[in-house]
């Protein structure tokens, strides 16, 4: 049965009828030392131009090599032809291990325990012997050309409101280096990476394809994020957690979407991917029908390999890789970009796409602002992987300063018929040829089901542009991973696992129940949980100083947790009437963190010697009455609006030795009596 749905209305597509399948991969940074070097997991927030001059730099180039089977990986070969150089900036927390000039150390024990705790919270089964693997990485984000990853547990589950979701794999792996900048030249690109993040421990949680709908995907991501935070051992902030989506429909194929930072965008991103897969299934059959080739079945499970091989051969003959030099046709072109590029030595190269006229598409937004899927955008994405800024194709020309004269000249030069399309690329010749080779390869794939690939959400100014995605690389296979020989197998003993299971952290619901008995406001409860300081709250309440819950909670939320013992000492003295609010602020700023009992003794002494002892009620009343007598006309004029200005006068008379709340209360009562 042919799939039903209008791609111009992604929100109306039915996941069930389209055979929707989805799973999530969550990557969360852990708050421990680096995984295999023990260096601090500190991130230095410098832009490329602000990097300190004394930080060392080194450059590398990656070269494709044959694997054990004698073949060279297509992604690695393509990467080498891109002529990219990688420059690595070495911050203080990156040493020889990060530079791949020294063997890695064994697993950071604390990071292993954190991931085992997460596994226990998901009711997963630990692997008794942990074998570290190398995972090939070709984008330069790892100096070694691979990422170390260790499978820790399998076969877990989490509960969501909609349904239970299985957890296939829980792994512990290294984070990659952070890209700072890209510098382009006619000879290629130089990618600048900061090594501060390289080696920071990540937990990777891969769910089973149990997600039932785009909305359920968001719900699952939220549930996983909460569970990981329950350990209180994960990093917080922008970029510390990343969600990847594995999405397919029956007439499409599995695609991994990276860059889903904002959970609210997940349903929209998935629905746009469903529309994209549906569009390209229909386009493939339209192209096959015109070429008199067998049609794709509506379910990929019914594909025939012999048929697909036949179609592959036919499309290779139908769309040859025949690159034309067309620079001479653009000598009078009005496009400043084209003319200036030719002047600096670039070439205008073109390829023909027989039978593709009208099928590449034009930019067409739908109601929510997203773009409709179109082949021209996929071809541009393939070309950009070679480092070019983009392409021109015949469905959108004349435009961009390229006029009808140039379009007609190109068609004549390449002897195109009315039904044929063409693609132009303006770039240094080596780069343009590589880009157009990628375009031809992607155009041939339009006759097939969508390729299994990794895609990135299109980002503008740090946020998703419209929820659409662009191709990044082919989906890796099992050959991408092989054993790491520098790190010994790590045994997880039954005693270690039992200890983990017997000391699980509280869940967020258990923490809420614990806070609710303290009679705090709902805002305070939420703030304490979000700040992950409820344990510190209970330590103060149940500790030797026995701090009152409301006052201690307010102090933590107002003053922070940089000096918890000093803050506790100041609250203890204030609540006993032995220290003014102003005195507490002064002494807290001057204090050095030490045991709470020592700080209580020091603050008490300073309070007496520096006049921070609160005035008694009678003294406050006398000062208030004196100020009211002096400024009676002002009070008659301003009423209760006089409270603020008169507060300062009262405090001055008391020499700062009164509690502001007590002064405000008495002053308001007196003014209310006077004007009442």
What's the gist of this structure?
With 676 residues, the protein is of the alpha+beta class.
Protein model, in words:
It is a single chain. The protein is of the alpha+beta class. It has 4 domains: 10-60 and 72-290, no CATH class; 304-448, Gyrase A, domain 2; 508-609, no CATH class; 617-675. Helices cover 37% and strands 19% of the residues. The protein has 21 helices and 21 strands. Strands 1, 4, 6, 7, 8, 11, 12, 13, 18, 19 and 20 form an 11-stranded mixed beta sheet that branches. A 4-stranded mixed beta sheet has the order 2-3-10-9. β7 (146-159) and β8 (164-174) form a beta hairpin. The mean pLDDT is 91.
Which terms summarize this structure?
Gyrase A, domain 2, single chain, eleven-stranded mixed beta sheet, 21 helices, 676 residues, 19% strand, four-stranded mixed beta sheet, alpha+beta
Radius of gyration over C-alpha positions, nearest whole angstrom: 33 Å
Largest sheet: number of strands, sense, barrel closure? 11 strands, mixed
What is the general shape? elongated
Distance between the termini: 83 Å
Return the domain count. 4
Q: Compute the number of helices.
A: 21
